[in-house]
Amino acid sequence: MEDRLTRQAKSGTPPAAGGMRLGIAGDGIFKNLLGAAYVIAALPLGHLIGVAAWLMITTGVLVLTCGMAETWYAGIRPARTYLRFLTLYDAGWMLATLAALGVARSAGTGGGEVWMAYQAVAAIVLAVLLMTGAGAGPVGDRDGTVLLSLASATVVLIAAQFALAGFSTFTIDKTPADNTFAAVGTGGYAVAAMTLAVLVAVLASRPARTHRRTLWLAVTLTVLSVAVMPTTGAAGTTTPLLGALHVLIAVIIFAAAGWLTIEVARRRPPAGQPDGTAPSATRAACVRGAE
Q: In this structure, what DSSP letter does residue 274 have?
């Protein structure tokens, strides 16, 4: 395994130092304390914000892991990489908080699930980015691996949502169906958190955020999943037309997530060319061949 100095030399850019390094380490320590609190006080905190204990514990473990990675790589990863990722992480947290408040106000429940699910997903993304060194170069996640993984996982999660909804609708024994339909609601919050993470990954990648179609697909996914779906779902209990619209929007979200996944996969550069440009030797050979 490479030591810190070797990995630092390979990064090609200076790591965070001095006060900035202390600030990054402090943020990681805060995540460690927050994750530990989620795990230790899972029952009272979960009861306070209306979240199941298992989600509190899962989120706590992931946030704790993220904090450890953030602290460990504070002296390895470039300062600008940390600033970009932490800014996006915190911006996504603020958006998730606003979305959770909106969901709680409109639907009465579910806000806590959105808030905790975002923290779980965002912690995974940030930890993977720091551990793999993605984004240590000038443009961040240049090969689109993180974004493609998140988009693909979102498609799979939405497909599972449809399967659970069908099972709860057409099963003969309605007792397990009631539990399954509750799982559909929880999965909806997970989808909302995933779309927020997809949007953060798009904003963190220069090739993705400068590609208009990719950016608008990510924004559309987030708005529909975080704002429109909970609103129509809550209103559908009293207005059947809005309930039908809720299902239609779910289909649109599934189609948009699939489109985004295909778009990201199509635009990924060939292996060995993380920035999508041909190596200089290859370009020279092409020029000579054309002459």
A: T
Q: What is the pTM of this model?
A: 0.56
Tell me if 204 sits within 8 A of 141, measured CB to CB: yes
**Phi and psi, residue 15, nearest 5°:** -80, 175
Helix/strand/coil for 15: strand
Q: Quote the tokens at residue 140.
A: 């961040």
Q: What is the pLDDT of residues 217-262, one digit of tens each?
A: 999 998 898 888 877 877 777 777 777 888 888 899 999 999 999 9
Buried/exposed code over 103-113 (b: 16+ C-beta within 10 A; e: otherwise): bbebbeebbbb
Residue position matching structure tokens 């009631």: 178
- Quick one: tokens of 85? 């990722």
Confidence at 12, pLDDT banded by 50, 70, 90: very low
Whole-angstrom Cα distance, residue 74 to residue 284?
39
